Amino acid sequence: MKINIRQETPSDYQVVEQIGEAAFQNMEQSDQSEHLLVARLRTAAAFVSELSLVASLEEKIVGHILLTKIKIKTEQTAFESLALAPVSVHPNYQRQGIGGQLITHAHAIAKDLGFSSIVLVGHEDYYPRFGYQEAAKYGVKVPFDAPSANVMLIELQPNSLDEVQGVVEYAPEFFG
Predict the structure, then answer these.
(1) Domains of the chain and any CATH numbers
(2) Which DSSP string corresponds to 120-137?
(3) CB within 8 Å of 15: residues ≥ 6 apart
(4) Taking each helix axis from N to C terminus, what angle separates 13-24 and 34-41, rounded to the nearest 10 degrees?
(5) pLDDT digits over 92-112, tens only?
(6) Is the CB of residue 165 less than 8 Å from the CB of residue 35?
(7) 3 state SS of 141
(8) Which 3 state secondary structure label does DSSP give 6?
(9) Is the peptide bond before 143 cis (omega within 30 degrees of 0)?
């Protein structure tokens, strides 16, 4: 299966939102609004167009990933990072490695753009295969209730989080 991954364009927006809605429709831990989150984040100052990617198979878009800027803050410092949210694959194409390809590709672009870490809230059995670890290990927390096992991060640059700890500050668009 030859998957093509490229930057999302405005002409992709409607299809991407339909995929996001379908991908999370039956997920128990979802509020089924991820497609609305994507639409809001595209208008945010935290949006990085190079990190909104689509996966296509035979010219048909089947998946999407979005990484946006965040900060990890203490009272004294703020460290720039990224949030991965969401990654979605149309239900007809799930469990075929497309989400993993999107994640790996997004990591490479983020690293090339100079970002050194990514934070996410996601499934504790899925994301560790890409190098994600519990954020609590680094002293990083999110500003809402989430099980510690589901709050994860990855260093894109070795030791980039050695001196970083604090609370993630998301763009306001994350919260509607």
Answers:
(1) 3-171 (3.40.630.30)
(2) EE--TTTGGGGT-EEGGG
(3) 61
(4) 150
(5) 999 999 999 999 999 999 999
(6) no
(7) strand
(8) strand
(9) no
Structure tokens at 128: 């560790």
Cα dihedral angle (72, 34, 147, 82), rounded to 10 degrees?
-20
Q: Which residue has the tokens 């128990």?
A: 28
Provide Rg for the chain, Cα atoms: 15
DSSP 44: S
Distances from the Cα of 125 to the Cα of 63, 133, 149, angstroms: 20, 11, 9
Instruction: Encode pLDDT of 60-97 as tens digits.
Output: 999 999 999 999 998 899 999 999 999 999 999 999 99
122-129's contacts with Cβ under 8 Å and 24+ in sequence apart are 122/84, 122/150, 122/152, 123/29, 123/150, 124/149, 124/150, 124/152, 127/152, 128/152, 129/100
Q: Which amino acid is at 93?
A: Y
Residue at token pair 């035979």: 58
Q: Which two tokens stand for residue 93?
A: 């194409």
